[in-house]
Design brief:
The protein has about 260 residues and is of the alpha/beta class. The protein has one domain: Rossmann fold (3-Layer(aba) Sandwich). The protein has eleven helices and twelve strands. The strands form three sheets. It has an eight-stranded mixed sheet with strand order 1-2-4-3-5-6-11-12, sandwiched between helices. A two-stranded antiparallel ribbon has the order 7-10. A two-stranded antiparallel sheet has the order 8-9. The chain is globular.
Length: about 260
């Protein structure tokens, strides 16, 4: 079910996939939106109830030119408070992964466990692909064709507009978001206190294997573990069944409050 709430006069949207299970907050990456977690929600039900946020500038949430780190964390804080939930498990992919562990680092009493999908603690990302995206196309098929091999990763965000087909995100705003991702985030990663699963795509060009291993090693007390799956950067898309199984197994071993 799609719902909305307001933060600083901006409307944010989220999908509550429902069910009687324990809540799992899910945060998507750039180019995506909450609906990308529908397969995971189905796979984890009924034990887990996935509630996924359309992060600022994505999906059905309002557009904004401000995509700084503090902006995203404030939105997640407001989202969690709006839901009226106590401590929860949080999952995030890429942009959402950084947002998730920064939220967990700054609100240690609000996160019981953490799943981070293919994002590091030291980021120097290239946004040239974003600038090369076609801005519009006459049909959904034409848009997918113009994007090429990456189209399956973006198709959840395809939207029909008056002038043809485009996206549920703004290309220029996405560049701002990607620019704000870059930097040294080790202090946040190391400040996380809850059990953490880091999922890396074995063929990822975003998270190097040695960096992922270093992330786990630098978390005191063995509170983080790494798993690699035969996928690229978007692990939940490339191997959805294996991804869901890894998430389910990890969560089953963690405290829920």
């Amino acid at each position: 079910m799609r719902e909305y709430f307001t933060v600083d006069q901006r409307r944010l949207s989220f999908l509550d996939f429902g069910g009687p299970g324990l809540p799992l907050l899910a945060l998507h990456g750039n180019y995506n939106e909450a609906s990308v977690f529908a397969p995971l929600a189905e796979a984890l039900a009924p034990r887990w109830r996935v509630i996924a946020l359309d992060q600022r500038g994505h999906g059905e949430s309002d557009r904004t030119r401000s995509h700084e780190r503090a902006d995203y964390i404030a939105d997640i804080t407001a989202f969690h408070q709006h839901l009226g939930l106590g401590p929860v498990a949080v999952l995030g992919h890429s942009l959402g992964g950084l947002n998730a562990y920064q939220y967990a680092a700054r609100h240690t009493d609000r996160v019981t466990s953490l799943i981070i999908e293919d994002i590091g603690a030291m980021l120097n990302l290239d946004w040239s692909f974003t600038l090369q995206l076609p801005r519009s196309a006459p049909s959904r098929e034409a848009l997918a064709s113009a994007i090429g091999a990456m189209a399956p990763y973006l198709e959840c965000s395809f939207r029909q507009r008056d002038d043809g087909w485009g996206y549920s995100f703004d290309i220029d705003h996405t560049v701002l978001s990607q620019q704000a991702l870059n930097g040294d985030h080790w202090s946040d990663w190391e400040a996380v206190t809850c059990p953490t699963l880091l999922i890396r795509g074995a063929h990822s060009e975003v998270l190097a294997r040695e960096h992922a291993r270093d992330m786990v090693a630098r978390r005191a007390g063995g509170r983080a573990r790494l798993i690699e799956l035969p996928a690229g950067h978007v692990v939940h898309h490339d191997v959805p069944d294996q991804f869901a199984a890894a998430v389910r197994t990890f969560l089953s071993r963690q405290p829920t409050a």
